[in-house]
Amino acid sequence: MIPTNIKALILDMDGVIWKGNAPIGDLPATFSRIRGRGLKFVFATNNGTKTPEDYQLKLSELGVDVEPGQIVTSALGIAFLLAQRHPRGTRMFVIGENGIRAALVERGFEIVGVEDAPQAEAVVMGIDRGINFEKIAEAALLVRAGRPFYTTNTDRTFPTPRGEIPGSGAWLSVVTSATGVEPMVAGKPFPFLMELALDRLGTSKEETLVVGDRLETDIAAGQAVGCPTAFVLSGVGTIEEAKEWKPDIIAESLWTLVE
Ligand SMILES: [Mg+2]
Fold first, then answer.
1. Domain 75-185's class?
2. Hey, which residues are catalytic here?
3. Domain 8-46+188-258 adopts which CATH fold?
4. pTM for the structure as a whole
5. Most Cβ neighbours (<10 Å): which of 19, 151, 175, 205?
6. What torsion do the CA atoms of 40, 46, 49, 52 make, to the nearest 10 degrees?
7. Domain segments of the chain: what residues?
8. pLDDT average per 10 residues of sequence, the chain (259 residues)
């Protein structure tokens, strides 16, 4: 199913590799097929809660061995974006978990908590399972006061084995609704995370296939950066929705794509 000119894959994870903690299909067999075909691959996820090492461990537990450098997250994407716009030491008010915090600290930024929020020079928002009213209120106050506003991604929902729960975009909408200000976005559907992945792969856009289960983020990001795209039906998107987006390939799952 994969065109012969394709040399590499940029793979989404949630809905392509797993749903929550449940693997989708026989992952060791799928990746042995991918390697057997000589395809390079990088995982690119809008989920910024975990570090590449966290994902390396999770993949290894599912029988897939990768290097941390093969994983790019929206947390790495936003840290890279912030490093281009703010000097080291800039104080950031962060709503987010370990993945985003580690990525910002690695770039030399200072993270301030709710109690010191008024000192923050920028607001960075990702998914945060410890979110509360105080955090949202401080973010809104800072954004209304004109501080630059960034987010890892705008995914409205987040897949779990039981269904969709509110994602980063759902929480973000509280702040955008309260302030009237839209953030700058690091993750898919914006092309930045794809560019980071292409940089890691060292392949051209034409020979790199972007694989994802969500049309408005994965497929849109692939199209935005100029890569061919493959839409898989193992996650949240449906074949009816696919007609509108016109991905280059539609497959039941990653396994059927590489079979
Ligand atoms: Mg997905």
1. alpha beta
2. 12, 14
3. Rossmann fold (3.40.50)
4. 0.82
5. 151
6. 10
7. 8-46+188-258, 75-185
8. 95 93 95 97 89 94 96 91 93 94 94 97 94 97 98 86 89 97 93 90 98 95 97 93 94 96
